[in-house]
């Protein structure tokens, strides 16, 4: 079962919750794989401290064959991402803008563009001691977070039958990387912080999940009174399955990479995971 842990903003506590849930399930003798899909800033392993074996991840990049090119500009004009610059006797592909769609190669009538590759990041894996861990790590300045998440998920597909649960720590927010993480999850757990900003971003995230037709349950982190969340949840038929109190000890453990502990009632979370809300 794939469980996506998501949040509307950074720092809401989804990584904290993912680690707590993985510990709980592992202690129940479940085989758990944690997938850190927050590829621009993966930090799950700050707490697991596993030795990861990394492999490079490449993506398509157009290569220019100068002797074949007429500099007609058709490839640049058809590029949806403005990744090509063409002028008289000048051709340039901009890596930061290229989305590896191969349209330029397809439209070129003179075989002046062929396939090349460039590295966009790495995938790290550790299969020693449960929970196991896989993470994507995007190159600094790279824009193709969604492409790397797809590659990590392809790796997961190859080994998914070895696990009872796959916990996917998603990128924050509501953009394409978060949607890519959520779209084929069996269960979605939203972690939101009990602040005005946290509540505002939670409502945006809630609307996004509704748009892609995904149900979810809510865990409130840094809990003080939760008034806005309880009211909104009642109005929109959202289940609140857990509360993590605003506890200085949790903050200290997180800051030092220590063993995280919380009094979350994971029995309610487990009922949601197994589809029993009663």
TrEMBL record:
SUPFAM superfamilies for the chain: 4Fe-4S ferredoxins (SSF54862), P-loop containing nucleoside triphosphate hydrolases (SSF52540)
Residue span, 4Fe-4S ferredoxin-type domain: 60-89
PANTHER family membership: 4FE-4S CLUSTER CONTAINING PARA FAMILY ATPASE PROTEIN (PTHR43063)
Protein name in UniProt: AAA family ATPase
Organism of derivation: Flexistipes sinusarabici
Lineage: Bacteria, Pseudomonadati, Deferribacterota, Deferribacteres, Deferribacterales
